[in-house]
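To: structure subgroup
Subject: Chain for Friday's discussion

All,

I'm putting the inputs and outputs inline so they're searchable in the archive.
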Amino acid sequence: MYDLATRRHVLTLLGDGRSLNSVSKETGISRAAIRAWQTRTSPLTRDSTLCPGPADATTYAYLLGLYLGDGCISAHPRGGHYLRIACADAWPGLIDLCRAAIAGVRPDSKSALVQKQGCVEVKSYGRHWTCLFPQHGPGKKHERRIALEPWQQEIVDAHPWEFIRGLIHSDGCRTTNWTVRHGKRYEYPRYFFTNKSDDITDLLTRTLDRVGVQWKRANTCNVSIARKASVALMDAHVGPKY
């Protein structure tokens, strides 16, 4: 498996007019792999302008989770697009984390805050948001298919906890539940994730499976994590919003 920096370098060499054979000999990467990178749908080959891709893959995994939960992309009248992510007023730390993630993924893109009713919209203009988040499209996410591109799945596989953290920070929470056992009140922590999109929920649960977190469907829109060991894992890698 090659990282994004290696693939960007290879595709840049090809873009400079180098032959497949010469690039393969210089880099030691097979022609078959390079040919696949040329044809694969990717932020590196999506349009005629070479997309630089995310500057930091770890940060991108987190921002991808935020985007899938509470993000959207809208066109600017003079070209380019706005990435918009809604963050509840109750979690000022989340707003700061979102802005930091945008800066980490696209260091040349500034972000601004737009106050809405009950939330703050973190907004950032750029010409590569649509290739960085190819899940954008008309209509609501839960009314259309949402699937990761192969290059996105590679990032999620490499940084699963950051992806989970982004999804929980956007559409999840850590709560304290209680029950009565043998006449005594017993409290225990639990994580919830709520999203109407089966595709997005499946992305979360498949990633939870990979890191050993046990979960169950509370209902059609909710995922619950309540097992003690799994909550401990979530606390170590995700934690409550603040």
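Points worth raising on Friday:
The CA atoms of residues 44 and 86 lie 27 Å apart.
Residues 166-237 form a domain with the Endonuclease I-creI fold (CATH 3.10.28.10).

D.
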